[in-house]
Automatic annotation (TrEMBL):
Belongs to the enoyl-CoA hydratase/isomerase family. GO terms for cellular component: mitochondrion. It comes from Podiceps cristatus (Great crested grebe). This is Enoyl-CoA hydratase domain-containing protein 3, mitochondrial. May play a role in fatty acid biosynthesis and insulin sensitivity. The keyword Secreted does not apply. One of its GO terms (molecular function) is hydro-lyase activity. It comes from the Eukaryota. Signal peptide: none annotated. Pfam families: ECH_1. One of its GO terms (biological process) is fatty acid metabolic process. It is found in: Mitochondrion. Keywords: Fatty acid metabolism, Lipid metabolism, Mitochondrion, Transit peptide.
Length: 205
């Protein structure tokens, strides 16, 4: 995900949330947003946010929902809904799963933004680079990911998110079985054979 202009994403259009619209319309707005956020994690490919500017409210939620986020040094991240009487409860779902609780709650309670470096320090983004290197760094990560097997990435991504909701013992049972299943895949065996033979693997896709 990327944007043009000084703002990465400012979240919902507040005109859509005025009292002129009914509760059914408001529900649809938030349900569609939640569906988009959850679909990001269900997609079989890694999703990268390339952030160059301000990401607020649902825009901050979008960054937190992506698998990887690369930000320019000028980027900022905020959930300022509390300041206009609309607490960022849905963004809090993604923030609370990406940031330490006290950091997320300070953002939610005050609406004050995190700088790019603070976002990196707390784990909201994976990398911060100068603005003129943002495209290069994002594409570097993309190209590296594209060198791997698509089916193995899809399996790994789905398993990662599944085990994150499980207790430790269950997570190890789940991932142990997935490792065994991974070995039965063509690309699993191709990768091991290529490593042993000191050659590049030839993936099935």
């Amino acid at each position: 995900f990327a944007a043009e202009g000084p703002v990465f994403c400012s979240g919902h259009d507040l005109k859509e949330l005025s009292s002129e619209d009914d509760v059914k319309h408001h529900s649809q707005v938030f349900e569609i947003c939640a569906e988009v956020m959850t679909l990001i994690q269900k997609l079989p490919v890694p999703v990268i946010a390339k952030v160059n500017g301000l990401a607020t409210a649902a825009g901050c939620q979008l960054v937190a929902s992506c698998d990887i986020a690369v930000a320019s040094e000028k980027s900022q991240f905020a959930t300022p809904g509390v300041n206009i009487g609309l607490f960022c409860s849905t963004p809090a779902v993604a923030l609370g799963r990406s940031l330490p609780r006290k950091v997320a709650l300070e953002m939610l309670f005050t609406g004050e933004p995190l700088s790019a470096q603070e976002a990196l320090m707390h784990g909201l983004v994976s990398k911060v680079v100068p603005e003129d290197r943002l495209e290069e760094e994002t594409m570097k990560i993309s190209r590296k990911i594209c060198e791997s097997s698509k089916s193995i990435l899809a399996l790994g991504k789905a398993t990662f998110y599944r085990q994150m909701t499980q207790d430790l013992d269950t997570a190890y049972k789940t991932t142990t079985q997935v490792m065994v299943d991974n070995l039965t895949l063509r690309d699993g065996q191709e990768g091991i054979e290529a490593f042993i033979q000191k050659r590049k693997p030839v993936w099935s896709h």
